[in-house]
Batch of 2 targets.
Target 1
Amino acid sequence: MTAEPSRHDHFPRTDGARRQRIRAAVAAGEAAWRATDCAPDGLFTAIDALGDAPADMAVAQLLSWLDDTKWMRARLDAALALLAADPFLRPPMRLVGGGDGAPGGLILVDHGGVRLTLLVHPAASCIAAPATCVFVPGRAAVRVLSGGGASLVSHEVAVSAAEEAGGFTASAAARCHSHPPRPLHTGETLRLDTARQSYSLAGAAGDLLLLELAVQPPSVLPIRAYDIRSGGLIHASAARRDSSFRAMALALLRQLGRADAVPFFVSETRSEDFAGRWNAMRELIALDSAAALPHLVAMAASDPHPEVRHAAAATRALVFPPSGETGREGSEGPGPCTSPAPFTPRSVPCAPDPASCRA
C-alpha cells in the first residue's frame, strides 16, 4: 500500500536557486521589520526607552501598541505576501502551540523581556473549562480582538514579599481561588499581575483572537500551576527563560545518554534557581547515578532551599539505600538509575514543564 504523498515531498531540495531566493526573501523581510522596530517611533525603541522600569510601568507605557494594531496588520500582510510568493517560505515569526485544534499563535515581537503575541483559541478548544491554571511572574495586558462569545474565569493566588524574594516553598504555598464566570467582550483589555492573576476561557461559540503584551523580568519566584477545582498547587518550575532553556538541553543530553556532559549537569545543580537545581539533579541521576551520588549528598546537606534538601535526602534513600538492594552485584556501587525519583507535588519541587509556561 502506497502512502499518500505529502506536500513536503515537493520541497525544492535540488533547486538551489529557488532555495536561495527563499532565504533571501526571509532575510529581507526580517531586516525590514527590524528597521521599522528600531526607527525612532518603533517598538524596539519604545521598549529600550523603558530601561529598568518595573514591569507594571512597562506595560502601562506600551499599551498604545495594543490599542492601535496597524503595525500588526502591516506585519501580517507582509508575512502573507512572502507566503504568496513561495509556499515553502517560512516568515520570520516564531510559532507558539497550535496544531490539532489546540490554542496557538505567532510571536510578533520578543525584545528586552517584552513579548507581543497574537494568540488564536479555536472555538473547540474553549468549550469546556480547563482543569488547571498557571501563574507566571510578571505583568501582562491582553487585548481581546475577537471574544468568540466565550466566558472568562479569573483566578487569583496570594504571593508574599518573602516568596517573591526567593522564599517560595510548595508546602507553604497559598491556594488559588476562582471568581464566577463573566462574558468576554470584544475590544476589552485585561490587565494582569501574572504572578497572582490568571484566567481561563470556556463556552466559546466562535474562535477567539487575542493580542497579548507580556513583560516578564527575571524572577526567583517560580511558575506555578494549580488545580482549579481544589485550588491546590500541583506544579512548580523555573521562571527564568535561561533556566528553562538549560533544563530542556539537559533533558536532551540525558535522552542521548551523553555521560561526557556530566559536568554541565553538575554545574546546573548549583544554579540560582531552586527548581532548576532540582531538575538538573533528577536528570543527572537518570543519566549516571554513580556520578550523581556525591552531588546528591552535598545537595541533601547544604542546598539553600529546604524542599530541595528534603527531596535530595529522600531521593538518596530511595535510589541509594544503605542495604544496596538496587546496586550492582559486588562492590561497584549502585547501578544506573533509569528514571528520576518520584515526588509529592506539595512537599518537594517539580521539574520544569515548558507546556505550562503561560498565564
Target 2
Amino acid sequence: MQNEPSGDYYDYTKTMKPERPWLLPWHQKYVYRIMHAMRGGLGEHTADPEMTAGRPPEHAYVYGDGKIATRYLTFEQSLEVIKRVHHLTCGTPQIVLLTGWQYEGHDSKYPSWAGVNEHLKRPQDATALDSLRWLIREARQYNCLATLHINMFDAYEDSPLFDEYVAKDIMAKDKDGKLIVGNRWWGMDCYHVSYTQEWKHGLAQKRIDDLIAMVPEIQENHCVYVDAMLGARKADQKGPISPYLGYSKEEEARTMRKIFRYWRDKEVNVAGEHVWGIRVDRFIGLQAHTASQMEHIKDIPDALMCGNPSHFGFTTVTEPEGFQERFWIEFLPWFDKNNPNGGEALEAMKAGTDICMPALWCEEPTVIAYSKEGYEEKRWKLPADWSGVEKVAVARVTGDGAEPVGEVAVVDGSVVLSVGAGEVLRLRVGV
C-alpha cells in the first residue's frame, strides 16, 4: 500500500500533545449514546443452546430474518432526544454515539457496516440510510455532532462478509485452522477479526472508505466511535488474536496504530471503548476519547485524552434516571476545569450536591444553580466578571426549554436562591 500509515509507537510524553491536533475539542464536549435497537438473536446458529432456550420466545428469531428484539428509538425519535438534551443542558456541545443503527440492531452482522436498520426509517424517506443521514444533519442545529457506533473486532456468521473473512484467514482460528468463538452476545456466537490480516488484505481500509462514502457526514463531523478496540480475545488475553496466524499482540497493536492514523488521514478522530488491560498500548495521542476505563488515564491531561463524566445511554426520549444530577454535579465542574475561562475557584461554587456555577459553553454569560435535595435561602457568590450586575433573570431548565420564573437582586456580588429538589435554575443578567 502506498503512503501506508506508520505502525510505530507514538511517544506522547515528548510534547504531551496528540500526534496531530484533535479535530474536535473532546475535553469540551458532552459525549453520550442513543441505543436504537437490539438484534433479535439467532437461535439456530449458536453453540450455546441452553442460552438460546432461556431467551424469551419473542427474541428467539432465526438468524438473518431481519427481525429485532427491541426497537428503542427510531431516527426521528432520536432527534427528539438530542433536542431534549440540548434544552436540559442549556445547549452544551454534544457528541452522540448512534448505537444499533445497522441491520437488525446493536452488534448485528459485523464485520459489515453496509446496511442501515430498516426498522428505524422515517416513513417519508426512500431508504433507512436517507433517514440516518437526515438525523446526523438535523442534529447540528442543536450543537450536536452525531456519529456512528461501529466495531472493528467482532464478527457474526450472518454477516455478508463472513465467508470472505473466513476464507482469507481474517477470523481468529486455532492452530488447527478451526474458528474460535471469542464471545457470545445476544445468544449468538461472536468471532474476532485479526486487525493485521484484515489490513494486509486491504479490507480494513475498504471498510472505512466504504462507510465514509455511505455516510459522508461522519467525515464532516470529524468523529466516529469504535467499540471493543481490543488487542486480544477475552479467553486468552496474553496470546495472539489468531493462533493460526501467530501475529503477536505487539504486531496487532502496530496495525491498530495504522488504523487510528488511517481514520485521521480521513479527517476523523476515533473515540473508543477501552484504554488498557486487554491491549498493550493505551494509544495516547491517537485515540481521542474513551467511554470507559477512565481510571487508566488519570495521569493524562484531558486535552490529550479524556472520557467525560456523566456518560449516559438513552433508550427513551425522556432522560435516564439521575441524568440531571450527574450532568450538573459531575460534568459541569469537569467542563469548567478544562475551559480556558474556567479560572474561578470552583470549590466555592459547589457544596455537596448543591452547585451555583458558570456554564461556560453558553454564548451569553450564564450561571446554573442545581440542588439534589433542595434548599431555602442560600447565598452564592457570582463570578467576578459579573461585577456591576444588579439583578439576574431566573429561568427553570426543562426538557422543553427554559421557563422564566422571575428575577433575583444581586447584593455585594451575591444572590440568595431557593432551589427545589432536583431543580435546575438558569441565571442570566437581568434586563
